[in-house]
Fold this protein.
Amino acid sequence: MLGRRQIACVLVAAVAAVLPAGTSAAADPEGSTPYVNPVSQDFADTFADPAVIRGKDGWWYSYGTSDPLREGENVFHRIPMARSDNLVDWEYVGDAFSDATMPSWADTARGASIWAPDIRYVDGQYRMYYVVTETRPPGGTDERFDNAIGMATAPTPVGPWTDSGGPVVGPRRVGPDNFTWTFDPSAVTDTDGSQWLFYGSYYGGVWVARLSADGRRAVGDPTMVAIDNKFEGSYVVRRGDYWYFFGSVANCCAGPTTGYSVHVGRSRDLRGPYVDREGIPLLASRAGGTPTLVQNGNRWIAAGHNAVVTDLAGQDWIAYHALGRDDPWLDEPGGINERPMLLDRLDWVDGWPYVRADLGPSDDQQQGPVTDGAAFTRFEQGITAPFRTQGRWTIGTDPQSGRYAEALRNRSTITAPVPEPGAVRAEADVRGAAGLVLGEPTTGPRIQVWVDSEANMLRAKAVGARGAGDRNAHVALPESYRPQAWHSLVVELRSGRLHAELSHARLGDPLAVLDLVLPAGADTADEGGAIARKKGADVDNLSVLRAHQPVTELVQEHVPGTLSAADSDEFDGTSYGAGWTFVDDTRGNPDPTVTGGELVWPVEDTDLNGPANDAGLLLRAPPSQTGNWAVETRLTIDTGENEVLNYQQGGIVAYVDDDLFTRLSHVAIWNTRQTEFGKELRDEQGVLRNGGTIAGPPGATTYLRIVHRFDEANAEHELRAWTKREGGTWVKGGVWTLPGDTTIQVGLISHGRQMGETKTSRFDYFRTYVD
């Protein structure tokens, strides 16, 4: 594994030469290993619901849901674990549980499984949260489908894991054998030191509850943060003044038509309300959520259930699972979905996260995370060059961290030259009164950030040049802070500003944050490292590296913008214009009519999905089969909010036949209203498969757009969804592909009614745009 680093510089330079606009400006980052997704390929064909942490021993660890790891294996691993030194090459290191060590309250007689792990490190112990799918007393029930959240602790990232003895969040009963889905835990720590757990899924919504100090039980009343019937798989991080909620949407596991993706909202309060980029609440019936990770037409579909990890240069990365659309099953079709772990760069632009500057999942060679460098040490070989010391240090050994540096004298330092002038990031795991320093070697440390364990504060001091003065800052640590436990300290110097964070384990939930505008003379650093303000302070996993160059602009996707009047219809007459073909439904529903400048179409009790093939269609030919074009409509549908009107919808369609199409619609899904971009096909076995991905939030009036391009290299039609609320901005959704040798028609639909009063789709126009 380590040998790949020796060729990293050459390969990264080659990759950087072809990176698209909007990517990081760092062409050849030290300590970065190029990679191609999936990153779990060395040990697993499937590794769903990944969770990732950097252990106190300096290695990275990942955890997946219980599945066989390889095709044909047929052995379920109870939370498989893997280890990496670079985040892209992973090796399997065992399972967290076995049949013999499953939680005692898991009803294995009813086939209880264990899913969706979340990993944390708090106050000297590793904590894993997970779903137990079937429970039994005590703590559970004697009924079926009574899922709950469990928790186990361990002294190391690989165990041994000991279940806490009962559910953290128990089964939530609705009726006999009927329980809301207590799935997908994600724990965080607030700045007051309190522990919180997000959990839930489509059936019941996503909630957050405070945890007891030991993390073993939810206490108090939970708060709902995301509406039911849209979100699951939550992951929450804090950045600046906001908490960001990452939630997965759509079906996770529909084989070749799976449209799983990740939507984001943010809130100044951990408990919400969370809103998306358009300001729409995630609790609204017309459900908010900004698409952050969506399929883009390459090899990968169903990208979701993510974690977020930060490399040593400060660049964030999103770890997630996805399906290869040409190989979506682990074994037999219709069985386990094959969902390996992928990794891609996560950029923050104008306060919102985007994957690869909004390019989405990668399937070609990428510049990898920075996980090493000349000025990085785990102290396994002691204190070696380029690090040098002042004061006195010794090397200790710890069961969690391995070898570490212990100060034998006050104000001892371990420093190394900064790779080059500019933005610098230093970090270390610290215990006691330890900290980080940045400054010129001839004048001593100009910047110090340290834990004042006596005052229970994180402090910063910047010494300016002559006449510039000094600047100090401090922030209180939680009363529960334990200086004798390992914590992660990060300091970043960029553009004359200092940013520092102290956390349990660098998982995006800092205990303390400091920001300081630096005086003249303190805004550059030629050397950096660690400081022990008092003897007995400990340091491990120390790095002083060039900070990443943030992406500041998104990659803009081309959308044809020249109206083709011959391929459009404003519905200004008494009937729809020339070029249309109406395919009547088979159930006697009213036909669409044109009146008042709109095409008016009552929602049919039919559906294009499924085997009935009984829906009405209004179709026409697009401008070409191989060119770039976009079709768009402005739709008003009176489904209102909250009322259950399954699955009444209106929208646009790219249609080959009744068993091969894509459909973008404003649809009522139980109590929600969503814009779904669906696909139906027959697979190689002739089985009808359908699924969908979710685009932006709808309004009472919603603009729907499908953009077509022809992929010559793969001989495929690529169709991208876009949506916009009245008065809002366009939101980019996912891509479905259709075989290039098929002939597409485009048009309008209004169907799906299974219950409720018949609603009406009103189309203001149908417009076609070309280059």
Residues 1-27 have pLDDT under 50 and may be disordered. The CA atoms of residues 344 and 573 lie 50 Å apart.
